[in-house]
Amino acid sequence: MSRNTRALRRPGRRAAVAAGLVLAVGLGVSTQAVAQAAAPIPAKASTAASAAASAKATAAPRSITGFNGDLVTQTADFYGAYIDAKDDGAGPDTKLAKALRTHYLAPAFAKRLAAWEKKNNVDGVLRAQNVPVEWTVSEGRNGLDVIVSLTYGGGESPTTTTRFVVKHEVLGGITDIRPTSAAPTKPSAAKRSVSGRTGDSVTRIADFYGAYVDAKDGAENPDTKLAKALRTHYLAPAFAKRLTAWEKKNNVDGVLRAQNVPVDWTVSEGRNSREIRVTHAFGGGETPTVTTDLVVKLEPVSGDVTDIRRTSTH
User: Fold this and answer.
1) Residue 30, exposed/middle/buried by CB under 10 A (0-12, 13-18, 19+)?
2) Mind giving me the DSSP string for the chain?
3) What's phi and psi for 96, nearest 5 deg?
4) Quick one: CA dihedral 246, 248, 251, 254, positive or negative?
5) What are the tens digits of pLDDT across the range 14-60?
């Protein structure tokens, strides 16, 4: 069973990997870790205010950035993909949910959590019987604690937010999930936070790529079960077959378009609602940093990935 549970980000951990392993390079990576969304403009807003808001939205498209080996990123990968698995349109994806729990939860805690769920008849990861509409993962008070905030409701339903402290071990995965009344640390230059919205395309692709990188970068070996479950959940079946054929021909991972895993990654809005841009940064430390810039195309109804292609090379 593979793990990706380093306590702190380790820049340049892939420094020994030659930059030539990366098949394409592209745009750089943003350092902003919070999912951004332009505020809706009131119906009676002035023309000037509307123009300003429009310009701001154009200048700052929504994006989510992750760092390989960072606990905030790992926890966001886990919760984001787990929510997607529980919120699948055809019914909960139990295979993906199980693979995620096996990868991210420490074995002893996974057993305790399963016993707790059986007794309380509620999901122990979410501490609820339904899925949240929004979620945020923030740094805790120490290096091994992360604060997870889950927001439920919206529309005609009252909005409620639950918060948990998710505890980690350096090399053992998540060892506890417990409710807390403590407010999360406010995002700043020194404090990281990652946010997502259930059903949002940028969030969904960030969940996929974040968890996929974690699966491929297991502490001992790649977690092939998790990687397979992620591909089954997020890739359209016809595209999954074409991608497998492409990988056999090119001897490289078709999701990452590389033979190694990235150090940093950013998922952001594309030119239209059916496209998402994914930028991976490889190298660091003593190795020159190179990037790949991918466009991920989505099926408009299901949101499944129907194509992954490289854009310009720099």
Assistant:
1) middle
2) ------SS--TTTTTTS-GGGBS----------S---PPPPPTT--HHHHHHHHHHHHHS--EEEEETT-HHHHHHHHHHHHHHHHT-TTS--HHHHHHHHHHHB-HHHHHHHHHHHHHHTSBTTTTBSS--SEEEEEE-SSTTEEEEEEEEEETTEEEEEEEEEEEEETTTEEEEEEE--PPPPPP-SSS-EEEEETT-HHHHHHHHHHHHHHHHT-SSS--HHHHHHHHHHHB-HHHHHHHHHHHHHHTSBTTTTBSS--SEEEEEE-SSTTEEEEEEEEEETTEEEEEEEEEEEE-TTT--EEEEEE----
3) -70, -45
4) positive
5) 333 333 333 333 222 333 333 333 333 344 444 444 444 444 444 46
